[in-house]
Amino acid sequence: MELGKIEKLLERYEEGRTSVAEENLLRDYFLSHEVPPHLSSYKLIFRYTSSQRDEKLETEPKMGSSRSKIAWSSIAAVLVLALGVYFFNEADQNLNQNDISSVSDEELAIQKTKETLNMVSQLMNEGTADLVYLQEFNKTTNKILKTD
Amino acid sequence: MKERTFLNIIDPVKDKMYRLALRLLTSKEAAEDATQEVILKLWDRKEKIKHYANVEAFAMTVTKNYCLDQLKSKQNSHLRIVHQNYESHAQSLQSEIEVNDEMVLLGRIVEKLPEQQKMIFQLRDIEQYEYEEIAEIMEMNQTAIRVALSRARKAIRESLIKKHNYGIR
Protein backbone atom coordinates (compact mmCIF):
# COMPACT_ATOMS: atom_id res chain seq x y z
CA MET A 1 0.00 0.00 0.00
CA GLU A 2 1.36 3.43 -0.86
CA LEU A 3 2.12 5.97 1.80
CA GLY A 4 -0.46 8.49 0.64
CA LYS A 5 -3.27 6.04 1.23
CA ILE A 6 -1.88 5.22 4.67
CA GLU A 7 -1.78 8.89 5.60
CA LYS A 8 -5.39 9.31 4.47
CA LEU A 9 -6.38 6.37 6.63
CA LEU A 10 -4.43 7.78 9.59
CA GLU A 11 -6.28 11.04 9.29
CA ARG A 12 -9.61 9.23 9.49
CA TYR A 13 -8.23 7.05 12.26
CA GLU A 14 -7.46 10.10 14.40
CA GLU A 15 -10.99 11.33 13.87
CA GLY A 16 -12.48 8.01 14.91
CA ARG A 17 -13.96 7.33 11.49
CA THR A 18 -12.13 4.14 10.50
CA SER A 19 -13.71 0.69 10.67
CA VAL A 20 -12.14 -2.16 12.62
CA ALA A 21 -10.99 -3.69 9.32
CA GLU A 22 -9.25 -0.47 8.26
CA GLU A 23 -7.61 -0.19 11.65
CA ASN A 24 -6.32 -3.72 11.31
CA LEU A 25 -4.94 -2.80 7.90
CA LEU A 26 -3.08 0.10 9.47
CA ARG A 27 -1.85 -2.06 12.31
CA ASP A 28 -0.53 -4.72 9.96
CA TYR A 29 1.17 -2.10 7.84
CA PHE A 30 2.90 -0.41 10.76
CA LEU A 31 3.95 -3.68 12.36
CA SER A 32 5.52 -5.03 9.19
CA HIS A 33 6.95 -1.96 7.40
CA GLU A 34 9.63 0.58 8.04
CA VAL A 35 7.95 3.99 8.12
CA PRO A 36 9.24 7.55 7.66
CA PRO A 37 10.17 9.33 10.92
CA HIS A 38 7.09 11.56 11.06
CA LEU A 39 4.93 8.42 11.29
CA SER A 40 7.08 6.52 13.77
CA SER A 41 4.84 7.51 16.69
CA TYR A 42 2.02 5.55 15.04
CA LYS A 43 4.28 2.55 14.81
CA LEU A 44 4.78 2.66 18.58
CA ILE A 45 1.10 3.15 19.26
CA PHE A 46 0.10 0.19 17.11
CA ARG A 47 2.80 -1.92 18.63
CA TYR A 48 1.55 -0.95 22.06
CA THR A 49 -2.11 -1.72 21.34
CA SER A 50 -1.33 -5.10 19.87
CA SER A 51 1.02 -6.00 22.74
CA GLN A 52 -1.65 -5.17 25.31
CA ARG A 53 -3.81 -8.04 24.11
CA ASP A 54 -1.28 -10.51 25.47
CA GLU A 55 -2.22 -9.68 29.04
CA LYS A 56 -4.19 -12.66 30.37
CA LEU A 57 -6.08 -13.38 33.54
CA GLU A 58 -3.84 -15.89 35.26
CA THR A 59 -6.13 -17.04 38.04
CA GLU A 60 -8.93 -19.42 37.17
CA PRO A 61 -12.36 -18.03 38.01
CA LYS A 62 -13.80 -19.74 41.06
CA MET A 63 -17.52 -20.13 41.38
CA GLY A 64 -19.21 -19.62 44.68
CA SER A 65 -16.47 -21.20 46.78
CA SER A 66 -15.70 -18.06 48.74
CA ARG A 67 -19.38 -17.22 49.01
CA SER A 68 -20.37 -20.64 50.32
CA LYS A 69 -17.54 -20.53 52.87
CA ILE A 70 -19.00 -17.34 54.28
CA ALA A 71 -22.47 -18.86 54.18
CA TRP A 72 -21.36 -21.99 56.02
CA SER A 73 -19.45 -20.10 58.67
CA SER A 74 -22.46 -17.86 59.30
CA ILE A 75 -24.69 -20.93 59.67
CA ALA A 76 -22.19 -22.38 62.15
CA ALA A 77 -22.06 -19.12 64.09
CA VAL A 78 -25.84 -18.94 64.33
CA LEU A 79 -26.01 -22.56 65.50
CA VAL A 80 -23.42 -21.98 68.21
CA LEU A 81 -25.23 -18.87 69.37
CA ALA A 82 -28.64 -20.60 69.43
CA LEU A 83 -27.35 -23.62 71.32
CA GLY A 84 -25.48 -21.37 73.75
CA VAL A 85 -28.57 -19.33 74.54
CA TYR A 86 -30.68 -22.48 74.86
CA PHE A 87 -28.37 -24.22 77.32
CA PHE A 88 -27.75 -21.08 79.31
CA ASN A 89 -31.47 -20.52 79.82
CA GLU A 90 -31.95 -24.17 80.73
CA ALA A 91 -29.31 -24.02 83.47
CA ASP A 92 -30.76 -20.78 84.82
CA GLN A 93 -34.22 -22.24 85.18
CA ASN A 94 -32.96 -25.28 87.12
CA LEU A 95 -31.16 -23.02 89.54
CA ASN A 96 -34.27 -20.92 90.21
CA GLN A 97 -36.49 -23.92 90.79
CA ASN A 98 -34.05 -25.44 93.31
CA ASP A 99 -33.90 -22.19 95.19
CA ILE A 100 -37.67 -21.87 95.43
CA SER A 101 -38.25 -25.42 96.59
CA SER A 102 -35.58 -25.15 99.30
CA VAL A 103 -37.33 -22.25 101.03
CA SER A 104 -40.95 -23.21 100.64
CA ASP A 105 -41.55 -22.99 104.38
CA GLU A 106 -42.14 -19.37 105.50
CA GLU A 107 -40.78 -19.97 108.98
CA LEU A 108 -37.68 -21.44 107.49
CA ALA A 109 -37.37 -18.52 105.12
CA ILE A 110 -37.35 -16.01 107.96
CA GLN A 111 -34.83 -18.10 109.82
CA LYS A 112 -32.57 -18.27 106.78
CA THR A 113 -32.86 -14.55 106.16
CA LYS A 114 -31.96 -13.75 109.75
CA GLU A 115 -29.01 -16.08 109.58
CA THR A 116 -27.82 -14.44 106.42
CA LEU A 117 -28.21 -10.92 107.76
CA ASN A 118 -26.43 -11.91 110.95
CA MET A 119 -23.58 -13.30 109.00
CA VAL A 120 -23.37 -10.13 106.96
CA SER A 121 -23.30 -7.86 110.04
CA GLN A 122 -20.75 -10.11 111.73
CA LEU A 123 -18.46 -9.85 108.71
CA MET A 124 -19.06 -6.11 108.70
CA ASN A 125 -17.93 -5.85 112.29
CA GLU A 126 -14.87 -7.93 111.61
CA GLY A 127 -14.09 -5.58 108.80
CA THR A 128 -14.46 -2.43 110.87
CA ALA A 129 -12.24 -3.99 113.58
CA ASP A 130 -9.40 -3.83 111.12
CA LEU A 131 -10.00 -0.11 110.65
CA VAL A 132 -8.64 0.55 114.16
CA TYR A 133 -5.20 0.80 112.66
CA LEU A 134 -6.31 3.91 110.84
CA GLN A 135 -6.39 5.64 114.19
CA GLU A 136 -2.74 4.76 114.61
CA PHE A 137 -2.01 6.45 111.32
CA ASN A 138 -3.74 9.61 112.45
CA LYS A 139 -1.67 9.67 115.63
CA THR A 140 1.60 9.55 113.77
CA THR A 141 0.61 12.28 111.36
CA ASN A 142 -0.35 14.43 114.31
CA LYS A 143 3.08 13.87 115.81
CA ILE A 144 4.76 15.02 112.60
CA LEU A 145 2.57 18.09 112.44
CA LYS A 146 3.48 18.96 116.04
CA THR A 147 7.22 18.74 115.52
CA ASP A 148 6.85 21.00 112.54
CA MET B 1 -27.57 -23.08 34.19
CA LYS B 2 -24.72 -25.44 35.03
CA GLU B 3 -21.37 -24.16 36.17
CA ARG B 4 -19.75 -25.69 33.07
CA THR B 5 -22.00 -23.85 30.62
CA PHE B 6 -21.51 -20.63 32.51
CA LEU B 7 -17.74 -20.99 32.40
CA ASN B 8 -17.92 -21.67 28.66
CA ILE B 9 -19.72 -18.38 28.18
CA ILE B 10 -17.33 -16.47 30.44
CA ASP B 11 -14.11 -18.01 29.19
CA PRO B 12 -13.69 -16.00 25.98
CA VAL B 13 -14.59 -12.76 27.80
CA LYS B 14 -12.63 -13.10 31.01
CA ASP B 15 -9.31 -11.88 29.62
CA LYS B 16 -11.02 -8.85 28.11
CA MET B 17 -12.70 -8.16 31.45
CA TYR B 18 -9.36 -8.49 33.20
CA ARG B 19 -7.63 -6.14 30.76
CA LEU B 20 -10.34 -3.52 31.17
CA ALA B 21 -10.07 -3.83 34.95
CA LEU B 22 -6.30 -3.58 34.70
CA ARG B 23 -6.58 -0.47 32.56
CA LEU B 24 -8.76 1.20 35.16
CA LEU B 25 -7.33 -0.10 38.43
CA THR B 26 -3.65 -0.25 37.37
CA SER B 27 -2.67 -2.91 39.90
CA LYS B 28 -2.71 -6.53 38.75
CA GLU B 29 -3.98 -7.84 42.08
CA ALA B 30 -6.86 -5.38 42.15
CA ALA B 31 -7.73 -6.24 38.55
CA GLU B 32 -7.71 -9.97 39.29
CA ASP B 33 -9.91 -9.47 42.34
CA ALA B 34 -12.26 -7.26 40.38
CA THR B 35 -12.60 -9.80 37.56
CA GLN B 36 -13.25 -12.57 40.06
CA GLU B 37 -15.83 -10.45 41.85
CA VAL B 38 -17.61 -9.58 38.60
CA ILE B 39 -17.69 -13.22 37.50
CA LEU B 40 -19.29 -14.12 40.83
CA LYS B 41 -21.84 -11.35 40.35
CA LEU B 42 -22.68 -12.74 36.91
CA TRP B 43 -22.90 -16.25 38.33
CA ASP B 44 -25.40 -15.00 40.91
CA ARG B 45 -27.49 -13.57 38.10
CA LYS B 46 -27.04 -16.57 35.84
CA GLU B 47 -30.76 -17.05 35.30
CA LYS B 48 -31.12 -13.52 33.98
CA ILE B 49 -28.07 -13.76 31.76
CA LYS B 50 -29.92 -16.03 29.33
CA HIS B 51 -32.22 -13.15 28.46
CA TYR B 52 -29.44 -10.80 27.47
CA ALA B 53 -28.89 -10.62 23.73
CA ASN B 54 -25.19 -9.87 24.12
CA VAL B 55 -23.76 -11.51 27.22
CA GLU B 56 -20.25 -10.34 26.43
CA ALA B 57 -21.25 -6.68 26.30
CA PHE B 58 -23.19 -7.13 29.52
CA ALA B 59 -20.20 -8.71 31.25
CA MET B 60 -18.01 -5.83 30.11
CA THR B 61 -20.54 -3.28 31.34
CA VAL B 62 -20.64 -4.91 34.76
CA THR B 63 -16.84 -4.92 34.84
CA LYS B 64 -16.71 -1.24 33.88
CA ASN B 65 -19.24 -0.26 36.54
CA TYR B 66 -17.58 -2.39 39.20
CA CYS B 67 -14.16 -0.87 38.54
CA LEU B 68 -15.53 2.67 38.55
CA ASP B 69 -17.17 1.95 41.89
CA GLN B 70 -13.87 0.63 43.17
CA LEU B 71 -12.13 3.80 42.09
CA LYS B 72 -14.77 5.90 43.79
CA SER B 73 -14.71 4.05 47.09
CA LYS B 74 -12.25 5.45 49.55
CA GLN B 75 -10.58 2.22 50.49
CA ASN B 76 -9.12 1.93 47.04
CA SER B 77 -8.11 5.51 46.49
CA HIS B 78 -4.49 4.50 46.95
CA LEU B 79 -4.68 2.28 43.88
CA ARG B 80 -4.00 5.19 41.59
CA ILE B 81 -0.64 5.76 43.17
CA VAL B 82 0.53 2.16 42.99
CA HIS B 83 2.84 1.87 40.07
CA GLN B 84 1.97 -0.52 37.29
CA ASN B 85 3.91 -3.72 37.68
CA TYR B 86 5.33 -3.89 34.22
CA GLU B 87 7.30 -7.03 33.74
CA SER B 88 9.95 -6.43 31.20
CA HIS B 89 10.91 -9.56 29.39
CA ALA B 90 13.73 -7.51 28.02
CA GLN B 91 16.48 -9.24 26.15
CA SER B 92 19.97 -7.88 26.40
CA LEU B 93 19.62 -6.32 22.97
CA GLN B 94 19.64 -2.56 23.09
CA SER B 95 16.76 -2.18 20.63
CA GLU B 96 14.57 -4.52 22.67
CA ILE B 97 15.16 -2.41 25.74
CA GLU B 98 14.34 0.75 23.84
CA VAL B 99 11.09 -0.71 22.55
CA ASN B 100 10.13 -1.82 26.06
CA ASP B 101 10.85 1.64 27.40
CA GLU B 102 8.57 3.04 24.76
CA MET B 103 5.85 0.60 25.75
CA VAL B 104 6.18 1.60 29.41
CA LEU B 105 6.02 5.24 28.37
CA LEU B 106 2.89 4.59 26.33
CA GLY B 107 1.36 2.79 29.29
CA ARG B 108 1.91 5.89 31.41
CA ILE B 109 0.46 8.15 28.76
CA VAL B 110 -2.69 6.03 28.50
CA GLU B 111 -2.90 5.96 32.29
CA LYS B 112 -3.15 9.74 32.36
CA LEU B 113 -6.17 9.85 30.06
CA PRO B 114 -9.57 10.55 31.61
CA GLU B 115 -11.31 7.30 32.61
CA GLN B 116 -13.90 7.43 29.85
CA GLN B 117 -11.33 7.92 27.10
CA LYS B 118 -9.14 5.27 28.66
CA MET B 119 -11.96 2.73 28.54
CA ILE B 120 -13.02 3.58 25.01
CA PHE B 121 -9.42 3.41 23.81
CA GLN B 122 -9.08 0.04 25.53
CA LEU B 123 -12.28 -1.31 23.99
CA ARG B 124 -11.59 -0.07 20.47
CA ASP B 125 -7.85 -0.05 19.88
CA ILE B 126 -6.92 -3.00 22.05
CA GLU B 127 -9.99 -5.24 22.12
CA GLN B 128 -11.17 -4.12 18.66
CA TYR B 129 -14.87 -3.94 19.46
CA GLU B 130 -17.25 -2.43 16.91
CA TYR B 131 -18.75 0.96 17.73
CA GLU B 132 -22.14 -0.66 18.31
CA GLU B 133 -20.71 -2.95 20.97
CA ILE B 134 -18.76 -0.15 22.63
CA ALA B 135 -21.95 1.92 22.76
CA GLU B 136 -23.68 -0.97 24.50
CA ILE B 137 -20.82 -1.55 26.95
CA MET B 138 -20.30 2.10 27.78
CA GLU B 139 -24.03 2.91 27.81
CA MET B 140 -23.34 5.89 25.56
CA ASN B 141 -24.27 6.85 22.00
CA GLN B 142 -21.94 6.12 19.11
CA THR B 143 -21.22 9.73 18.23
CA ALA B 144 -20.04 10.52 21.75
CA ILE B 145 -17.83 7.44 21.60
CA ARG B 146 -16.24 8.49 18.31
CA VAL B 147 -15.53 11.92 19.74
CA ALA B 148 -13.98 10.54 22.93
CA LEU B 149 -11.94 8.01 20.96
CA SER B 150 -10.67 10.68 18.61
CA ARG B 151 -9.62 12.79 21.59
CA ALA B 152 -7.86 9.85 23.19
CA ARG B 153 -5.97 8.93 20.01
CA LYS B 154 -4.86 12.50 19.43
CA ALA B 155 -3.86 13.00 23.04
CA ILE B 156 -1.78 9.82 23.07
CA ARG B 157 0.08 10.76 19.90
CA GLU B 158 0.64 14.32 21.00
CA SER B 159 2.11 13.40 24.37
CA LEU B 160 4.21 10.71 22.73
CA ILE B 161 5.69 13.24 20.32
CA LYS B 162 6.22 15.69 23.17
CA LYS B 163 8.10 13.10 25.19
CA HIS B 164 10.24 12.23 22.18
CA ASN B 165 11.22 15.81 21.58
CA TYR B 166 12.21 16.19 25.21
CA GLY B 167 14.51 13.23 24.80
CA ILE B 168 16.24 14.75 21.79
CA ARG B 169 16.63 18.36 22.92
Textual characterization of the structure:
The complex is a heterodimer of chains A (148) and B (169). Chain A has 148 residues and is mainly α. Among the domains of chain A are: 3-53, no CATH class; 103-148. Chain A contains six helices and no strands. Chain A has helices spanning 3-14, 20-32, 40-51, 65-102, 106-130, 132-147. In chain A, helix 2 crosses helix 3 (40-51). Chain A is elongated. The N and C termini of chain A lie far apart (115 Å). The model of chain A has no long low-confidence stretch (mean pLDDT 83). Residues 88-92 of chain B have low confidence and may be disordered. The longest helix of chain B is centred in the C-terminal third of the chain and has 27 residues, at 142-168. Chain B folds into two domains: 1-82, Orthogonal Bundle (Rna Polymerase Sigma Factor, Chain: A), CATH 1.10.1740; 89-169, Arc Repressor Mutant, subunit A (Orthogonal Bundle), CATH 1.10.10.10. With 169 residues, chain B is an all-alpha fold. In chain B, helix 4 (55-72) packs across helix 7 (131-138). Chain B has helices spanning 3-25, 28-44, 46-49, 55-72, 94-111, 115-126, 131-138, 142-168.
